[in-house]
Amino acid sequence: MTVKAMSWTSVIGRVAFTNCDPLFFGLDERWSILSAPPAWLTGHVLRKDCLTAPIPTADFAKHQDELMLVPDLGIVAMGAVGSVILFGSRDIEQMRDIALPSDSSTSKVLLRWLLKHRGLDPKCVETGPDLKSMLDMCDGALLIGDRALSAATQHPELVSLDLGGEWTKVTGLPMVFGVFACRKDAPIELIAEIHNDLMKNYHEFNTNPRKKIQVVENSSNQTGISNYRMEYYFDNEVRNSLDENSTEGLLLFLKEVCKIEDSPIWANLSNHSE
User: Fold this and answer.
1) Is the N end or the C end of the chain the one with fewer CB atoms within 10 Å?
2) Which of 178, 177, 174 is nearest to 246 (CA)?
3) Distance separating alpha carbons of residues 165 and 158, to the nearest angstrom
4) Model pLDDT for residues 144-201, shown as the tens digit of each residue
5) Homologous superfamily of 3-78+175-257
6) Same CATH topology for 3-78+175-257 and 84-171?
7) Can you name the residues that pair with 124 across neighbouring β-strands?
8) Residue 7 gets which letter from DSSP?
9) Dmax (CA) of the chain
């Protein structure tokens, strides 16, 4: 079924990577799922293709006049994230140029900020997310998501920088790569229902060992990445909930990196939550 054939009020967008599988695997079937690269999801939310989606944090900054944040949910790096990686055969200080993937938004903005923090200014070139062709073209290559996880497993000698880990090293805070956002005119009672269902599903992932095994095995089968690596990823590198520290990291990124002056607006779900 195409997006246009569905009512946007029954559709949730999701990143087409495993980083939010714990939220979406086994979700109530009353919701239709629109899967897309992170850089595409912002447009889907703005065009009313879906009610909400985990959009790139940098994209939220660009469209904060039209969007608000859904509380408690996000794509958060617990230090080193394992799936947002700068690859290269040279030290980062020696990289003359870096290929940036077309499917990323937040990671490209963050990389430029981290490079500037180190006093570096390599040429950046946007291209398709293929490690070999990127490194044929440039000294460095930024990959995100499952491609980064796989490439780091297959070519550990090429891993130059984990962007989540570097952000935490500089700021002392978690890095929030994706935020759940919705239009300001979205029906708040449905946003609350989505929020409740996603939070319940994530709680089950974290408390039900059988559910966790199912998610890990499904993610492994989808990507070809080992069960052990996927479980480590979900346990130690990425999470889908916002706590006080990660919210502080989010606000710092929006202010210092994205240069937004006003505090973001959060959807008020207090009168609709179960």
Assistant:
1) N
2) 174
3) 16
4) 999 999 999 999 999 999 999 999 999 999 999 999 999 999 999 999 999 999 999 9
5) Periplasmic binding protein-like II (3.40.190.10)
6) yes
7) 98
8) -
9) 55
Pairing state between β 84-88 and 159-162: antiparallel
CB 103 within 8 A of CB 177: no
Q: Where are the domains of the chain?
A: 3-78+175-257, 84-171
Q: Which residues fall within 8 angstroms of residue 269, CB to CB, at 6 or more apart? A: 70, 71, 188, 191, 192, 195
Q: Look at the chain and count its residues.
A: 274
26 C-beta neighbours (distance < 10 Å), count: 15
Residue 209 buriedness (CB in 10 A; 0-12 / 13-18 / 19+): exposed
Give the pLDDT band (50/70/90) at residue 97.
very high
Domain spanning 84-171 has what CATH number? 3.40.190.10
* pLDDT per position as a tens digit, 57-89: 999 999 999 999 999 999 999 999 999 999 998
pTM score > 0.90 for this model? Answer: yes
Measured CA to CA, the distance from residue 25 to residue 218 in angstroms comes to 9
Is residue 115 within 8 A of residue 99, CB to CB? The reply is no
Output the six-digit token pair for 153. Answer: 């497993």
